């Protein structure tokens, strides 16, 4: 019995892995980040994650009912539900998390056909919608080492994030070590750079995420930050502040590498990483909010099919370069081999009457003599 090939959208897996095992690695990589959130903000961090997961699972079930399709169990709603709270401050109200999850699932994911068919990163769009609707809550960060209330109104001391200070052209009040260890305020899951980077490397080692896109993204972004620093002082300090503030590191490992909305070919991933760094740089330098990563990622999701198409064209030319060169040489040699016929060698019958003046004069003289003879005969 012949096996049939199945054409499906990303995520694709190899060997004995499946979509569930690959997504399980992403869930495992997110759990240590939540533990650090508990360390800095208390048990509320866990409840925010639970709220996101339950919301996305429930909304996914509703989406399946609306599409009248059988619900397929996968971990993608859980991943979306875990990522969205990590992009928000720890004192964010639960209804904001639910709203962001509703946009991610019911607006971004299911209208395009569910898992593997969404055009945009669901978590990025969900965060962007919350930032537009409640900017005063999304960009109000509590200071670290506070045990926030689990329910009810949160009475926590807030502080300016390093990303906000950079947007004003000021040096942040925190040193680089504080940002590496997560002592600086910011999104709940993006402040502890060492833990986030370690979890991202775990994903790469487990092959649940590619290394090409984050590597080229971080390299290109670092070059731009060194060439166009927003603050004075040491170039190394300015680079560290730019890289470790906001959601740059978290987004590079957990959002840029999302298999559905990222290019499939290696060359396309390189283009996506470099171009995403440029767009994120422009959003952070000239955008209204200090968190320009999510907005830039939404823009770059539009170009992922273009990168794949460009990559396919380049690969086609590379694979068939010998035949293309041979056909070009054959065509040029045929053009050179065609002889040019001079005008002198053309046959007489191809010449028009105007082009044979001698024959025309003889015919004219003969006709004149014939007319004279006919005149004389008539006179006789």
Account of the 3D structure:
This protein has 380 residues and is an all-alpha fold. The chain is built from 16 helices and 2 strands. Strands 1-2 form a two-stranded antiparallel sheet. Helix 3 packs parallel to helix 5. The model is unreliable at 1-8, 12-16 and 350-355 (pLDDT under 50).
Helix/strand layout:
Elements: H1 19-41, H2 44-67, H3 76-86, H4 94-109, H5 122-133, H6 135-138, E1 141-142, E2 158-159, H7 162-167, H8 176-181, H9 193-205, H10 212-227, H11 235-244, H12 248-254, H13 266-286, H14 293-319, H15 321-337, H16 357-379
Antiparallel strand pairs: 1-2
Mean pLDDT: 82
Looking at the chains present, what oligomeric state does this protein adopt? single chain
Envelope shape: globular
Strand order, main sheet: write it out: 1-2
Distance between the termini: 111 Å
- Helix fraction bin: 55-70%
Please provide the count of β strands. 2
DSSP summary: helix tally: 16
Question: How many whole angstroms does the radius of gyration measure?
Answer: 35 Å
By secondary-structure content and strand pairing, the structural class works out as: mainly alpha
Q: What string, H for helix and E for strand, traces the elements in order? A: HHHHHHEEHHHHHHHHHH
Report the sheet-strand fraction. Answer: under 5%
Catalogue the unreliable spans. 1-8, 12-16, 350-355
Largest sheet: 2 strands, antiparallel
């Amino acid at each position: 019995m012949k096996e049939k090939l199945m054409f499906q959208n990303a995520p694709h897996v190899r060997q004995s892995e499946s979509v569930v095992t690959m997504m399980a690695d992403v869930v495992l990589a997110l759990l240590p980040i939540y533990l650090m959130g508990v360390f800095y903000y208390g048990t509320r961090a866990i409840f925010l994650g639970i709220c996101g997961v339950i919301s996305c699972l429930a909304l996914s079930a509703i989406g399946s009912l609306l599409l009248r399709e059988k619900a397929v169990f996968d971990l993608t709603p859980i991943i979306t539900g875990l990522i969205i709270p990590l992009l928000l401050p720890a004192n964010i109200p639960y209804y904001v998390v639910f709203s962001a999850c509703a946009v991610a699932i019911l607006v971004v994911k299911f209208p395009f056909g569910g898992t593997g068919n969404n055009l945009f990163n669901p978590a990025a769009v969900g965060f962007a919608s919350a930032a537009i609707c409640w900017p005063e809550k999304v960009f109000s960060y509590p200071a670290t080492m506070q045990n926030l209330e689990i329910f009810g109104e949160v009475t926590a001391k807030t502080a300016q994030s390093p990303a906000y200070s950079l947007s004003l052209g000021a040096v942040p009040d925190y040193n680089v070590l504080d940002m590496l260890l997560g002592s600086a305020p910011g999104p709940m899951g993006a402040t502890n750079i060492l833990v986030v980077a370690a979890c991202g490397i775990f994903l790469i080692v487990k092959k649940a995420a590619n290394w090409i896109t984050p590597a080229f993204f971080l390299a290109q972004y670092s070059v731009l930050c060194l060439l166009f620093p927003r603050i004075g002082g040491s170039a190394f300090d300015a680079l560290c502040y730019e890289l470790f503030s906001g959601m740059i590191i978290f987004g590079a490992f957990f959002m840029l590498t999302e298999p559905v909305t990222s290019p499939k070919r290696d060359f396309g991933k390189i283009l996506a990483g470099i171009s995403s760094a440029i767009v994120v740089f422009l959003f952070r330098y000239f955008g209204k909010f200090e968190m320009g990563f999510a907005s830039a990622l939404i823009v770059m999701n539009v170009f992922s099919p273009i990168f794949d198409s460009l990559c396919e064209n380049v690969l086609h030319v590379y694979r068939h370069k010998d035949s293309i060169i041979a056909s070009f040489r054959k065509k040029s040699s045929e053009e050179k081999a065609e002889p040019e016929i001079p005008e002198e060698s053309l046959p007489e019958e191809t010449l028009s009457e105007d082009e044979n003046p001698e024959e025309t004069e003889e015919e004219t003289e003969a006709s004149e003599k014939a007319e004279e003879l006919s005149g004389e005969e008539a006179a006789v």
